[in-house]
Amino acid sequence: MVKERARILVVGGGYVGMYTALRLQRSLKRELKEGTAEITVVTPDPYMTYQPFLPEAAAGNISPRHVVVPLRRVLPDCRIVIGEATAVDHAARTATVATLATTEKGLPPEHLAYDELVLAPGSIARTLPVPGLADHGIGFKTVEEAIGLRNHVVEQMDIASSTRDPEIRDAALTFVFVGGGFAGVEALGELEDMARYAARYYHNVRPEDMKWILVEASDRILPEVGADLGRYTVSELRRRNIDVRLNTRLESCLNRVAVLSDGARFPTRTVVWTAGVKPHPVLAATDLPLDARGRLRCTPQLTVEGTTHAWAAGDAAAVPDVTASEPGATTAPNAQHAVRQAKVLADNITRSLRGEPLQSYSHKYAGSVASLGFHKGVAHVYGRKLKGYPAWFMHRTYHLSRIPTFNRKARVLAEWTLAGLFKREIVSLGSLEHPRAEFELAAGGKPSGGSDNPKTGPRDDPKGSS
């Protein structure tokens, strides 16, 4: 039984935030019903995105709405606040939150009081001061970006098909991906696979007309799967005529021209940036201790070091890896650890409220799996290395078992089954990004949003173009 009323504030609705709130909702069911405990989740989106399925969503293998989990449905006993935490004063036990209402009205942010704080805001894209990147780059971290990128790729094929100008065709059919981690390699592999399939429906666009370029600053890609499988992945991609450039950086993408550090220049309308992530900026606006990389310094019990009533896990936390042989090692910022850390974190909050001893987080890294397109993949799990179809099948099986809720599992499985029976959909719904453009034009106004669609003019927004 909780000794006194406990207000638990969870900042973030990603892996850690959702799973922590879900487990607390179950373990504190009686306290929540009696009103001696309350759980508030502050998140910028009303859903949790299962990011390992973003490449398949971008390729059209899975409907985008099936890779997100609605928080209000799975957390009925929690208060969901859609907004952005901008600062935390843990000494005063308050968090500053800009909600949709305060932003709409131009009001000052709200101050939420709490007794127990869970900081799990996740990470944001780590960008570099590359000229033109802010104007022309496309990220790949959200479901909206995945949808936008799919629409954009198909639109580029439409542009190339509708012109005989070699410069326009070449730029439209050149796709540059920066970053050789999971996000970049999987997104490139799935989209190249989709575009090659779609080309059969274009009378004047062939797969060999397209240039797919992967730019990686280090000497290897997919370091999580090991050096051997990393080299195999490079060979597999190059066998598909994908230009993999190691030890190379993007130096500029001004004027829709990608300039690389090796001197190569590629006119292109597509630059996808997946070169790493960094901690959420709200961490710097707290009075909690951070490490050299800007993450919260944590204990093995997932408390914030040197404080009480503050907890953290996931990308935002530097959690000691008690299974590692080298001293000072921390757990990798991935979903495998985040989901397990959330379980321990929620249980430790419950134990703390009930005056019970805390447990330490301990999990030995099991390995990694990556998809390289339909029936292609690599996997390094528990010391075993798999390639091709077995690795692809393991990738799908593992992530199907990990996506939250039976509802989502059933829907994803149904879509995969139907995809095996019918042909791929290759329709671009670019107008989704600017749904009012058609009406504004009909009403005699000037469309507020850009697009590559001739009805709405050239696209200018960085999220929808490159």
TrEMBL record:
Record's keyword terms, sorted: FAD, Flavoprotein, NAD, Oxidoreductase
GO molecular function, one term: oxidoreductase activity
InterPro entries per record: FAD/NAD-bd_sf, FAD/NAD-binding_dom, NDH-2
FAD/NAD(P)-binding domain location: 7-342
Bias-annotated ranges (Basic and acidic residues): 457-466
Region annotated Disordered, chain positions: 438-466
EC number: 1.6.5.-
Origin superkingdom: Bacteria
Family membership noted in the UniProt record: Belongs to the NADH dehydrogenase family.
Protein name: NAD(P)/FAD-dependent oxidoreductase
